[in-house]
Amino acid sequence: MSLNYKSQNLLINNIPIKKVVRGNSTPFYLYSYEKIRNNFNNFSNYFKKVDPLICFSVKSNSNIFIISELGKLGSGADVVSKGELMKALKAKIKPHRIVFSGVGKTEEELLHAIKKKVLLINIESESEAILINKLSKKLNCITNIGIRINPGVDAKTMSKITTGKLDSKFGLLKSDFLKFCKNSKKYKNIKIKAISVHIGSQITSIGPYKKTLDFLLKTIKSSGISFEFVDLGGGFGIPYSKKDKIIDIKNYAKLVETFKNKLNCKIIFEPGRFIIGNTGTLISKVVFVKKSGKKYFIIIDAGMNDFMRPALYNAKHEIIPVLKSKKRINRNVEFVGPICESSDTFLKYKNFTYINEGSLVAITNVGAYGSTLSSNYNTRPLAAEIIIKKGQIKVIRKRQKISEII
Prior knowledge:
- The protein is α/β, with parallel strands linked by helices.
- The chain has 2 domains: 3-31 and 277-405, Lyase, Ornithine Decarboxylase, Chain A, domain 1, CATH 2.40.37.10; 34-275, TIM Barrel (Alpha-Beta Barrel).
- 29% of the residues lie in helices and 25% in strands.
- The protein has 12 helices and 22 strands.
- It has helices at residues 17-22, 33-46, 64-73, 82-90, 107-116, 126-138, 174-183, 207-223, 249-263, 273-276, 309-313, 402-405; strands at residues 3-6, 9-12, 15-16, 28-32, 53-57, 76-79, 98-100, 120-123, 143-148, 190-196, 229-231, 266-269, 280-292, 295-300, 319-321, 328-329, 332-336, 345-349, 352-353, 360-363, 384-389, 392-397.
- The strands form 4 sheets. Strands 4, 13, 14, 15, 17, 18, 20, 21 and 22 form a 9-stranded mixed sheet that branches. Strands 5-6-7-8-9-10-11-12 form an 8-stranded parallel barrel, surrounded by 4 helices.
- Strand 1 and strand 2 (9-12) form a beta hairpin.
- Helix 5 (107-116) packs across helix 6.
- The radius of gyration is 23 Å and the shape is elongated.
- It starts with a strand and ends with a helix.
């Protein structure tokens, strides 16, 4: 993160967060442009010898300003809906740098992608290939596709974000994949350009990736097709606390380099969290401090509608005060939101820095799957998104007005 303390005050890129709060209502998302840029450049440097096409996973953060800035740094886009595709195009990402993934693309979405001539539509069933072929025939064009294969690899991450196991809804099983490759010549209006794979999210070990590369190597040889692209997906994990393991990207890069040299193909990556996860924080205000027996509930103005990950995945994000105090609350503390759900809870501590009603706190590492998972549940407006770039405070999504929801 780009957060640090100076004289007890929390700063982001050397700007006091309390300064950002003066002109903006809480809760709001706050990003560091410098951290986004550094993360993207670091990722590129890890894979310098591989020279991949990096397609930022738009589902992780779909703010048009952020997509546009990543595009200027050299990123393409991985999209999973017509809306995400439209956002990527509005952010000036070129169609030949866009990959369209997803297990249930509608006819409307496929038509849009075909007409825009995106680099690849990654199919996940033969039915999808039949539909793309039919639509392309009507439009008198040939559409480039990738085939997503299910490698049967358990990424050993949480069940809700594991996508490569054999009982997963994603991709074709190996037998179906090989059968499709064998019969693909009957589809005259599609061209197979890629094999695609994505085994899950928040992966912190290269073991599952190594298994996947070995699986791909054997499968590609059996397919009889010389794929121009191998889309290796994303899923690279980040540390959410000091205890969390850090993935060894350098060693993975060496494995991918060897893999690429054996196949003479172009590699595509679809990182999201690794680029954006630790660049964002959610700034929230303490509404009430409620003493309940031997416990304190710290009720903040951010709810599960603003930030869904703790409720959805039981994810743990560190919470830190915007103004540090030497005094401490020496009893159990639970940070909760205002939503009428017991699952609207963020984190528990055995003790915490002393904070009052009206104090500000920062929920950390929320850049990925933060704003994109937010909703209007309880008829609450969507939070603003703000970025610090070169010392300037810029609102990149205004706080929604309740009147706009009504």
